Amino acid sequence: MFKNILCAVDGSDHALRAAKTAAELAAKFGAKLTILTVAKKIKLSPEVKRYMQLEHLSGEPQYILDDYTENVIDQARAAARHDGVPNIKTEVREGHPARTIIEFAEKHDFDTIVLGSRGLGDMESTLLGSVSHKVATLAHCTVITVR
Ligand SMILES: Nc1ncnc2c1ncn2[C@@H]1O[C@H](COP(=O)(O)OP(=O)(O)O)[C@@H](O)[C@H]1O
Ligand SMILES: [Mg+2]
After folding, report:
1. Would the CB of 131 count as within 6 Å of ligand 1?
2. Dihedral angle computed from the Cα positions of residues 13, 14, 15 and 16, in that order, rounded to the nearest 10 degrees
3. What does the pLDDT look like over 18-35, one tens digit per residue?
4. Which residues surround ligand 2, an ion (CB under 5 A)?
5. Which CATH number covers residue 109?
6. What pTM did the predictor assign?
7. Residue 137 above 70 pLDDT?
8. CA–CA distance from 49 to each of 33, 44, 53 (Å)?
9. What is the extent of the structural domain holding 80?
10. Which ligand is the nearest neighbour of the Cα of 12?
């Protein structure tokens, strides 16, 4: 346990708290730490695609990250570095957030997933966000939801 930790972050304060917890855990247990964000795929219009072909522009941008998310990722890296975590990676995937987090965790043999209890959604009445609920329910490894 606590050898290979995955921390999933969106642009929320909750995610940042989760990242700080994940960094502390990774430092304490000498674990590897990966910070994962699931971004929305950019949908390019046919006109833009055609233009890119005409201009021989390859390597289309695959995703965009908003400033909040970029900021959380930067701060998460800084916290982990500050805590002395030797092995920090950041990854961005696109797709359905909960499913992508769960599949990523299984594929790369993470023993623990750390995420925030809530995210950027505004459903104040619920205690858990839909991503944290799904990941906690469906993931095969230990899941820590940080309040
Ligand atoms: N797109 C995402 N990529 C990575 N992690 C995410 C993503 N969305 C949410 N999370 C993680 O799940 C936690 C809970 O967010 P979520 O379930 O989406 O709550 P809400 O419904 O309030 O938005 C966040 O704090 C973050 O750790
Ligand atoms: Mg959300």
Report:
1. yes
2. 50
3. 999 999 999 999 999 999
4. 119, 121
5. 3.40.50.620
6. 0.91
7. yes
8. 37, 6, 6
9. 4-146
10. 1
